[in-house]
Amino acid sequence: MSLRKNNRIKGFAMVLGAAMLWGFTGTVAQHLLHDRQVDPGWLVTVRLLVSGILLLLFISLRGEGAQVRAVWKTPRDRRELLLLGVVGMMGVQYTFFAAIDTGNAATATLLQYLGPVLLTGWVALSMRRMPESREWAAVGFALTGTFFLVTGGSGSSLSISPAALIWGLLSAVTLAFYTVYPARLLKRWGSAPVVGWAMLIGGVALAFFCPPWAAPWSVWSVETILLILLVVVFGTLVPFFLYLDSLRFLLPSETGLLSCAEPLTAAVLAVWWLGVPFGPGEWLGALLIMGTVILLSIGGQRERVPAKSGSKPAGGF
Question: Taking the CB of residue 71, how many other CB atoms lie within 10 A of it?
Fold first, then answer.
């Protein structure tokens, strides 16, 4: 077996592992929010603060401390980094966890996957062109899939709460912003320091409203603490590095296709582990929404890009 083929297999395993860990994290978060009464704002604050500190510390210990400090070099970099942290990182994380809190991990993850469709529309508008047939098909899949996901196919009532639907759609909007906005920063400084600082900034901003020391200790247990650590480490740091490193071996379009394992993992675990009701209509909606990612990945960016320009496309991060 050639070295190139071995590297591609390694890349596929990395991105699949990352996507499945992100999907698993959403289900663990649902268990914490619904069954352990952990506040979603508090959980997001702790996740962002701990992940940001650990990521920046890891980069510094790797001998790249100068790059960590250099991100703050110019006023423009500082402004963009602050906006990314508060609106992008804090926004996408809080809306995602609020969607889980008011609904469930499966629908929250799937609704967030509407973000690429919003990006498609934004790109078409910014370039003053009509969407391609493939993009129109993706929009059709997304709209139809959302209908089946939130109604179960009945059309007479919602199968999730209105709050869950609103938070899920807001999660898709913030994901679109989070994906597009930091392009210049990622190209200039790389993903690790930019994402590390964005997480820390987002955590500090949210701490003013959901202070990490105001935890509901009465409902805590050893299991709760272990699950929170699981969300932070295996739901944030580990999949981030797996996904980022996979870009050395795969095309961005391929990672987009494989990332469909995230909502699928979240849906299967939510049904199997937490007993979330998911009927044929919801499964059809899930498949249609995942189909949008496939359509938008096929025929997308074909050139190989350096790892520093990659960014996680959805849900758990």
Answer: 21
* Identity of the residue numbered 51: S
CA atoms within 13 A on the CB side of 153: 10
The pLDDT-based confidence of 28 (bands split at 50, 70, 90) is very high
Give me the half-sphere count of Cα atoms (radius 13 Å) on the Cβ side of residue 92: 30
Give this prediction's pTM. 0.84
| Residue 216: C-alpha distances to residues 26, 36, 40, 69, 198 (Å) | 21, 10, 12, 35, 26
Task: Assign 178 to helix, strand or coil.
Answer: helix
Q: Encode pLDDT of 83-93 as tens digits.
A: 999 999 999 99
Per the structure block, which two tokens stand in for 131?
């969407």
Distances (CA, A) of 2 to 5, 9, 171, 272, 306: 5, 11, 42, 39, 22
- Residue 117 carries which side chain, given as an amino acid letter? V
Distance CA 160, CA 309 (A): 36
Exposure on the CB side of residue 94, measured as CA atoms within 13 A: 18
| DSSP characters over 225-272 | HHHHHHHHIIIIIHHHHHHHHHTTTS-HHHHHHHTTHHHHHHHHHHHH
* DSSP string computed for 36-66: S---HHHHHHHHHHHHHHHHHHHHIIIIIHH
Locate 188 and state its tokens: 């200039």
Query: Tokens 């994402």 — which residue?
Result: 195
At which residue do the structure tokens 């961005």 appear?
252
Residue 277 has which token pair? 């009701």
Check if the beta carbon of residue 47 is closer than 8 Å to that of residue 155.
Answer: no
Q: Which residues are within 8 A (CB) of 213 and not within 5 positions of it... i.e. 6 or more apart? A: none
Is 195:55 a contact under the CB 8 Å cutoff? Answer: yes
